[in-house]
Specification:
The protein is of the alpha+beta class. It has 6 helices and 10 strands.
Length: 243
């Protein structure tokens, strides 16, 4: 017997970039935009993981509101008029990319993810060819104590994809965030070396969802580190089916 689908809520109609679209009331602007092939840039968002609105690249304009709202966590409303590609938004997104590039030490020429990096790709797409703010040049560590993987904090953008996939999909919760502001960094367990972690299962999920070269497979040369994320929607679907 075919199971009866659970209603996703009432249908809402709205406009995105002048196009009439619709979606359920529990869906976000980002979800509806993607269903209608409307591109909104993101870095922290990844299908299969909870949204947290951390990177602020998906901010959109809503008619009648002075402030920008994150598309990944803003639910659609009836009659909402959304703009996703204005000069104000492009300027804001370029500023976010510049701040990310200046906060840590992103040297693409010697990165294992050069040519396969989401931060690098967005910088190129948004036309960020130089940074207007001062570089911080922090002295960040590289942890190579794990037998198979490494973490280079110089390339971390604090998107917390690794934290969420480890917690929500693998169930190990090896990764977390310590500190505040520019002092924040990803830590394993209670700020132990990754290789000394008692909770890590060495599954590699965190490495595969990392948008930059911050988490990498050992033995990869410059430009060789590609990420395989196809597993995430599948595992998420299986997890939901077991509930």
């Amino acid at each position: 017997m075919t199971p009866v689908p659970i209603p996703a809520g009432r249908v809402k109609t709205l406009k995105i970039d002048g196009r009439d679209v619709s979606g359920y009331e529990n869906q976000t602007i980002l979800e509806i935009a993607r269903e209608n092939n409307i591109h909104i840039p993101t870095l922290c968002n990844l299908e299969g993981l909870d949204d947290i609105g951390a990177c602020r690249l998906c901010l959109v304009e809503i008619k009648g509101l002075a402030r920008l709202l994150p598309a990944c966590v803003t639910r659609v409303q009836e009659g909402m008029e959304v703009l996703t590609d204005t000069e104000r938004l492009r300027r804001h997104r370029r500023m976010v990319i510049e701040l990310l590039l200046s906060e840590r030490n992103h040297v693409c020429a010697v990165c294992v993810s050069n040519g396969h990096c989401e931060l690098q790709s967005l910088a190129q797409t948004l036309g960020v060819n130089h940074v207007h703010v001062p570089y911080r040049y922090p002295r960040m560590a590289v942890d190579a104590t794990h037998g198979r993987f490494g973490v280079d904090h110089n390339r971390c953008i604090l998107c917390t994809r690794c934290v969420r996939v480890c917690d929500q999909i693998e169930g190990a919760h090896t990764w977390d965030v310590a500190g505040r502001g520019v002092e924040a960094m990803i830590i394993s367990d209670l700020k132990q070396d990754w290789g000394a972690s008692a909770t890590c299962t060495s599954c590699g999920k965190c490495v595969q969802v990392c948008p930059t070269g911050a988490l990498f497979v050992k033995g990869k040369a410059v430009g060789e580190m590609t990420k395989q994320r196809e597993f995430l929607p599948y595992l998420t679907l299986m997890r939901e089916g077991e509930k």
